[in-house]
Specification:
124 residues; mainly beta; seven-stranded mixed beta sheet; four-stranded antiparallel beta sheet
Length: 124
């Protein structure tokens, strides 16, 4: 099973940017569909973005479309989430996740490996 470690979270003013990283170990990241999810206090965990194994296809939640970009560097075994134009409602714990298989399915039940998460706080 692949192990995932997120980094890059922090405190940022609204309108600012952050880049989250997810480093994988134990398995080659290119074997997995990768995703980012988030969970805000008192809310359920929700899908943010996903990327296919070959980097050809990306998927986004409507709430982040046009502001966030998911990418992967299989040579570095790392996935990124570039977050621009951040809003206070983006405040949440962000999780990286890996899914076996070929097709990208955005429901969290399809992702078998999860990182510990990193906190993102956006203040106005």
């Amino acid at each position: 099973q692949v192990q995932l470690v997120e980094s890059g979270g922090g405190l940022v003013q609204a309108g600012g940017s952050l880049r989250l990283s997810c480093a994988a170990s134990g398995r080659t990241l290119s074997s997995y569909v990768m995703g980012w999810f988030r969970q805000a206090p008192g809310k359920e965990r929700e899908f943010v973005a996903a990327i296919s194994r070959s980097d050809d296809n990306t998927y986004y939640a409507d709430s982040v479309k046009g502001r966030f970009t998911i990418s992967r560097d299989n040579a570095k075994n790392t996935v990124y989430l570039q977050m621009n134009s951040l809003k206070p409602e983006d405040t949440a714990f962000y999780y990286c996740a890996a899914a076996s298989g070929i097709y990208v399915r955005t429901h969290q039940s399809n992702f078998g490996s999860w990182g510990q998460g990193t906190q993102v706080t956006v203040f106005s």
